[in-house]
Amino acid sequence: MGRHSCCYKQKLRKGLWSPEEDEKLLAHITKYGHGCWSSIPKQSGLQRCGKSCRLRWINYLRPDLKRGTFSQEEEDLIIELHAVLGNRWSQIAAQLPGRTDNEIKNLWNSCLKKKLKQRGIDPVTHKPLSEVENDEDGNKIQPTSDEQNLIGSTIIDGSNTQPSDSVGHFQMQQLNYEVSPSSSNPTHWFTQTSKYFDIDTEFSSNSMMSTLLPPLTSAFLSDSPSMAATYATRHWVADSASAGSANNNNTSASAELQSNDNSFYDNSGFSWGLMENHAEETKWSEYLDNPLLMAAALQNQTPQSLYNIEIKSEPYFLNSSPSSNTVWGQSQNQEQPLQNPDIFGKDIQGLTAAFGHV
DNA sequence: AAGATTGACAACCGCTCTGCA
DNA sequence: ATGCAGAGCGGTTGTCAATCT
C-alpha cells in the first residue's frame, strides 16, 4: 500500500518525460518487452520508477495508440458507456481501441461533462436535468402519469456488429420498461424486440455492455457490472447454444457468476446473479433516482408489499404481488424450480426496501 | 504588453487487487 | 494464513499553451 517501493529510491526523475527518455524506454521495450516494470528503469538506464515507465508506455508510447481528437462516434460511445459503467475508465477504454483510460477520463472531465450539461443531461445520472431539478418548494419534479407508463425505454443498436463465429451472439435489441398504471396491483414489465448481437471474447469488454439494458441495468449496476451481463448472458447462452456456436469458454461474466456464492443457477445450468452484492438495504437507496425505481416508487402501495419477480424469456416480468412468496428469477417457460432460490429470497428484501412505497 | 484564466493533456498519488513465497 | 511486491485503477494535481481582460 502507499508509494511504490521503487519510488523510495533516490535520484528518480519526476514530471514530464523528455524525448531522450521516451527514446530509451521505447527502444528497450521494443527490444526486450516490458516484462517486470520495476526492472525496466535499471535495464534501460532511466532515472524513473517502474510505475512511471509503465504509465508512460501505456498512455503515450504504445504503438497501437490512436492519436488525435476523438470522433463523434467515439464521444457518443463514451457517453453511452459511462451511463452504464460510471467512472470505470479502464472498462470504457477497453471498448475504444487505441484509446487509454487516462485519455478518456481527461476527455470526460474537460469536455463531455460540459457537452452533456449543455444538452440538458446530468453527467452523473445521465438523466435530463429537468428530472433532477426541484420546484419552487424544493420538491423533486416527478414525471407525469403518462411518462410513468413508458419509462426507461432504450434502444440497443447492434446493427454494425459483425458475426463472431468463435463465441456466438445473443438476441436482444430493445428493452422497454413499462408500468401498467390502471391496475390496483400494477405490473411492471420489460418488453423487447429481437436482434442479434455479437459477443467478443470477454463479456466485460463487449460493446454490448455499452448499450445493454439501461436503465434497467443501471438500476442494479452500480456495484456489479456482471449483473447487466447476466441479463444478457441468459439470452446469449440460450441463443448461441441453439445456434450451435456457443463457446465453452463462456464469458468472464458468466464464469464468474457460476463461482459466486450469491449467484444461482437456472435449470439449464446457466448462472444468474442479478442481485448479488446487494443484500444491504442501504445500497438500494442509491438507486432511487433511477427511472425504474422512481417509477416503482410512484406507485401508491404499502411499504410492506413484496414483489414477486418473475423472469420470462420474453418479456421479462416484474410483478408486484403483496404477501406472496418471493421467487426471483423463475422462468414461466420452465417448470423445474431453481436450484438455489433461497439466496434471492434474501436479496429480494433489499429490493423491496429499495422500492419503498411500492 | 502583461498578468489572469481556461482548457487540454500528462503525470503522479494513494489505494486495491492479485499472485507468490 | 500472512506479508510482500507488482500491477492496475481512479482521483487529483501539474504543466503548458491559448485565450481573455
TrEMBL record:
| Domain of life of the organism encoding this protein | Eukaryota
Record's keyword terms, sorted: DNA-binding, Nucleus, Repeat, Transcription, Transcription regulation
> Which residues constitute the signal peptide according to the record?
none
Please list the residue ranges annotated as the HTH myb-type domain. 9-61, 62-116
**From the Swiss-Prot or TrEMBL record, what is one GO molecular function term?**
DNA binding
Where in the cell does this protein reside? Nucleus
Segments forming domain Myb-like? 9-61, 62-112
What GO cellular-component annotations does this UniProt entry give?
nucleus
SUPFAM superfamilies listed in its UniProt record: Homeodomain-like
Pfam families from the entry?
Myb_DNA-binding
What's the protein called, per UniProt? Transcription factor MYB26
